[in-house]
Amino acid sequence: MPAERKKTVNMDEKEASSISSKDKESGDRRPASTREKGKDDSKLGGKKDNMKAAEEKKRRLEEEKRKKEEKERKKKEEEKLKAEEDQKKKEEEEKIKQEEEEKRLQEEEERRQREEEAAQIKEKEEAHQLHQEAWERHQSRKELRSKNQNAQDGRPEETFFSRLDSSLKKNTAFVKKLKTITEQQRDSLSSDFSSLNLSKYIAEAVGSVVEAKLKISDVNCAVHLCSLFHQRYAEFAPLLLQSWKKHFEARKEEKTPNVSKLRTDLRFIAELTIVGIFTDKEGLSLIYEQLKNIINTDRETHMHVSVVISFCKHCGDDIAGLVPRKVKLAAEKFGLSFPLSEIINSEKQQPFQNLLREYFTSLTKHLKKDHRELQNIERQNRRILHSKGELSEDRHKQYEEFATSYQKLLANTQSLADLLDENMPELPQDKTVQEEHGPGIDIFTPGKPGEYDLEGGIWEDEDARNFYENMVDLKAFVPAILFKDNEKMSQNKDNKEEAKEVKDGKDNKDVPSTEELEMELETLDINDDTLEMDAVDEAEADDLTKKLLDEQEQEDEEASTGSHLKLIVDAFLQQLPNCVNRDLIDKAAMDFCMNMNTKSNRRKLVRALFTVPRQRLDLLPFYARLVATLHPCMSDVAEDLCSMLKGDFRFHVRKKDQINIETKNKTVRFIGELTKFKMFSKSDTLHCLKMLLSDFSHHHIEMACTLLETSGRFLFRTPESHLRTSVLLEQMMRKKQAMHLDARYVTMVENAYYYCNPPPVEKTVRRKRPPLQEYIRKLLYKDLSKVTTEKVLRQMRKLPWQEPEAKNYLICCMVNIWNLKYNSIHCVANLLAGLVAYQEDVGIHVVDGVLEDIRLGMEVNQPKFNQRRISSAKFLGELYNYRMVESAVIFRTLYSFISFGVNPDGTASPLDPPEHLFRIRMVCTVLDTCGQYFDRGSSKRKLDCFLIYFQRYIWWKKSLDVWTEGHPFPIDIDYMLSDTLELLRPKMKLCCSLEEAIRQVTGLEREFLVKLGLANDKDSKDSSSIREGEAIEEEDEDDDEEGGAETEEQSGNESEMNEPEEEGSENEEEEREREREEEEEENTDYLTDSNKENETDEENNEVTIKGGGLKHVACAEDEDFIQALDKMMLENLQQRSGESVKVHQLDVAIPLQLKSQLKKGPPPTGGGEGDTEIADTMQFVMLTRKGNKQQFKILNVPLSSHLAANHFSQQQVEQEERMRMKKLTLDINERQEQEDYQEMLQSLAQRPAPANTNRERRPRYQHPKGAPNADLIFKTGGRYTYK
Predict the structure, then answer these.
(1) Which residues, 6+ apart, have CB-to-CB distance to 8 below 8 Å?
(2) What H or E segment, with its residue span, contains residue 1179?
(3) Measured over all CA atoms, what is the biggest interatomic distance in the chain, rounded to whole angstroms?
(4) How does pLDDT run across 681-693, given as a tens digit for each residue?
(5) Please, are residues 883 and 935 in contact by the beta-carbon 8 Å criterion?
(6) Among 84, 292, 861, 1140, which is least packed by CB within 10 angstroms?
(7) CB neighbourhood size of 584 (10 A)
(8) Which residues contact 1066 (CB under 8 A, 6 or more apart)?
(9) Residue 739's CB: how many other CB atoms inside 10 A?
(10) Top-confidence residue, 1088 or 1251
């Protein structure tokens, strides 16, 4: 039906539309009737309305389009402006960076200029020093040469020698001294020569001079003595020349000449020729001949290059006319004139120059050849490292020796080039020096030993590094007699190794050629074939194990006949598994070395270490440390243990069974620990890993992963084993990919790999702070401890407190107490207590910040801030312990923990959800910190009241529906509560249910309301409506039972006209004293608030201070001061004694009976008007005299009169003066007590104190005759008891 209805409607519409169209056409063709005309008008009106609606819609669309375009235009403009601002900001930043860069470059340029100036000054000083030395040497040689050449004319006659000493003894002794000539003996030898007649001993003296073993520095002294001989004895020079020729002829037959002697002799004969002892012809021919022989025999090996360099350095300028490049540059740069060689002409110098330059040419060829060979060796070694992962010890040693000889040859070539003024040859660098693989650890230039990087070092942290590297030096504690056997064994071993090295050196003397190295590389293979140890090592390990087991059986059989030492050793081995820390194992090592160091006991120790239980893997690091500690004194322990571990490892690898995995893991883990102590060689460890990788299946996978987890990081990050370890790790990962391993094995392999070679992690950008802020953080977060508090306080006082930024940052760091270690929070409170004495506002800001943070934590209530909230609560308690806050602040905070955000009707609150128990932990933290001091006085009563409310809060939490049998109330909270309450109130009876807790709270509130007189008004209110502040105030009002009220107003003034006899009772004085003490306790500031807890209301405990403190030491200054003080006081008394004291009698004494009438006052009239009149008047007593009789009359003078007003103001002034004097007297007493208290604190600070030393209460000062009653003296009223 609905479809048909819709169809008919559509048909009707179509018909109507067709009829209307026909009518329209007919209307166009003929005139319409009146009715048709009306219809047309209505149609036209509807058409106009439709047109208007269309126009309106069109206009609205255009407006929306315009608005949209406007919005887009504005957005584009904003983006443009923003882009311009960003561009401008970027330009400014670039400009700032550019300025900073320019500034940095300018600073570097200035620094470089300063360095250049300093270097230039130093160079100039060296040039001038060189110039001075050259002229001095030239002048001395020239003078000595002239003397020696003219010696023939100045030689003495025969009569001169007759006066000299010719004794055989002295002459023989002098000749012997010539064999050991030194520069220090120049004066003594010269004086001896001048007094001796050596005419008959010239030949012996010549022989001694030629055979003398001189140093380079002693040549000048020998030349000086030869000059003396030549100037006195004519036959000395020919004999000396002949002797030198014989000496050089004999040296030709030597196969290995002494280089040092050759260097000294060559310079000696050169100096003798220069100073004129030898003629130029004889001396130069001898020098040229010897120099030519040296050079001809050394053209290939250049072993005597040091001889040539020494000759050129000391005699090259005169003999060969050499000008070193250093001298030439100094002369050109600084305009210095060096002396020219005038001794020998240039023609005679030319052969020497040619000979030396030929030698330098051969030396450069040798240097180039060695440079190429060194590069080839480095290239081949690099290829071996990348392919095999390791270098053999022989190859590595060979490379080091060759590199050392090359460096020495290079240095000699540079020295000779400078002396000859020649250029060094070009030494091309190898382009393939950069390594293609690996992270870039250079095996040839490893890092310095001892360097430690926290992020990428060998060890995980500093403790691990100390454990594995810092051992006890037993040789420093143990006498050498106890490990003499080890020294003999090590010496024999060293001798064997040296003999073996010499033999190997003879066999492998020649460096292998490049072709041989390439052939060796081609034979290298790291396939997966099964690897085994050497047969020799296997046999040794088997023999050692068998020998140790046989000894064990033999010792077991002889156990009955053991000695006392055996019992000691057995006890030591039984206690060894209990050494589970570094101190114990070090002590055990020292004990063993001192008392049990014998060969049999060492073997017992090795067996005990090897047979460690497989479950006690925790002992392996300590046993390895024991072996490493004993190694310097008994190396056989480490050798035997390593051999046994190798044999056990080989046994497990060969057997290939699938049992005893714990024993296998124990063995490889022990090997890894010994490797980290460098007792087990790295190459052997890597060989073990290679054996496991060759058969990478089942237990071998676990063993390999265990070995890598134990020592893989150490091997990977050690330069010597890095490349080989990385190759093996890559091979392990390839095997993991190729083999279908179990998921457990895949996880183990990946964990082991990434432990050794962790993936690169992007470093977090550390916030950069100014140096002052970093220093403040260092003082607070690193340096501050219980021992360094005073030192940090001194540094804090030196901070720029006038700068608000520094002060605010320090306050912020102290408020953020969670950045500090929890056990060091009390140190910050102690520091702040000391700092407040100098910067008082800092303490206020810190306390305010801590309280604000505690309140913010309750408002936010997010679990991620729990640790922060606990630290703040702990800090608040410590601030009370160090007297920075009052007890009222602590109780207000405690009440806020159990009341803030807690709905009175018990419904859930977002600030304190039912399952959240963190506020209970906060309360316990505060009470554990400072609750132990709320044990007396008003604070004790406050804590008792709070604990009642706290129990109601706890039981309310326990009674919520969230806790069920399946989800019970946490037992750790119950334990924490019981611990806290047992510490504070061990005898307190705890509530057992919520109803009992509510009953106690209601009873407590009713008790206080009754005492306040508000019981009728407040009985109907709920107990939770009472604020914690009101409860505290009510507690303060309830102190009558303990000794009087504690408010300030209760010491108000009473009427001044009370009888003085009523003020002197003993009970009233005691009561007033107690009340005054209570007022001091309640109304003092935070610096003295904590003193009130040390006093009980029943008795005053005397505190006796024992121990440290400052001791008075008598000195002369004290006596002088006391004498000067006594003299000043005496002079003052004498000066005042002459003055007359006048007492102004302002008032006349009033009779007692009249005084009592004044106190009682007039009888009441019963009307309010009379009372008003009396209140507006002042009573005066008028004294009149009739004859000898005095009469007194009471006058009521209105207060408006001038007389009464003046008298009233005078009384007020006198009253104020009396109050001021009273306050001064009381302040004196309080200041004395405060000084005694400060002395007590200083004495307590001198000795180790318990945890809360600052909470020790001062002893109250008690005058020996009782404190004076200020109220009685100054008549200021006080508290009186009316009976």
Answers:
(1) none
(2) strand 1177-1186
(3) 185
(4) 888 999 999 999 9
(5) no
(6) 1140
(7) 14
(8) none
(9) 13
(10) 1251
β-bridge mates for residue 1189, sequence order: 1186
Q: How many residues does the chain have?
A: 1283
Q: Which pairs from 1182-1187 meet CB under 8 Å and 24+ separation?
A: 1183/1148
The pair phi, psi for residue 1058, each rounded to 5°, is: -65, 155
CA-angle at 387, arms to 383 and 393, nearest 5°: 75
* 1075 contacts 1042 by C-beta, under 8 angstroms: no
Within a 10 A sphere around the Cβ of 681, how many other Cβ atoms? 13
Locus of tokens 């058969």: 695
The 10 Å Cβ neighbour count of residue 1089 is 21
Q: What is the pLDDT of residue 704?
A: 93
Measured between its terminal Cα atoms, the distance across the chain in Å is 112
Measured between alpha carbons, how far is 649 from 613 in angstroms, rounded to an integer? 16
- Helix or strand (DSSP H, E) at 1197: strand 1189-1198
User: Which secondary-structure segment (H or E) carries 1283?
Assistant: none
- CA dist., res. 824 & res. 827, Å (int): 5
Cα torsion 1073, 1076, 1082, 1087 to 10°: value is -100
pLDDT at 1078 over 50: no
Token pair listed for 700: 């071998």
> What are the residues facing 1177 on neighbouring strands?
1198
Task: Judge whether 1181 and 1159 are in contact, CB under 8 Å.
Answer: no
Q: Rounded to two decimals, what is the model's pTM?
A: 0.38
CA 1198 to chain centroid, in Å, comes to 83
Cα–Cα nearest to 877, from 944, 932, 920, 812: 932
DSSP lists the bridge partners of residue 1183 as: 1192
Are the CB atoms for 875 and 829 separated by under 8 Å?
A: yes
- Taking only the tens place, the pLDDT of each residue in 864-904 is 999 999 999 999 999 999 999 999 999 999 999 999 988 86
pLDDT band of residue 53 (cuts 50, 70, 90) is: confident
The neighbouring-strand residues paired with 1196 are: 1179
User: Burial of 647 by CB count in 10 Å (0-12 exposed, 13-18 middle, 19+ buried)?
Assistant: buried
Cβ 316 vs Cβ 419: under 8 Å: yes
Residue type, 1198: P
**Secondary structure class of 162 (helix, strand, coil):** helix
Cβ burial 536-546 (10 Å sphere, 16+ → b, else e):
eeeeebeebbe
Q: Whose CA is closest to 640, among 673, 615, 613, 604?
A: 604
831 alpha-carbon distance from chain centroid: 20
> What H or E segment, with its residue span, contains residue 181?
none
What is the identity of the amino acid at 149? Answer: Q
* Token pair 């470089």: residue: 112
pLDDT attached to residue 92: 87
The answer to whether 589 and 435 have CB atoms below 8 angstroms apart is no
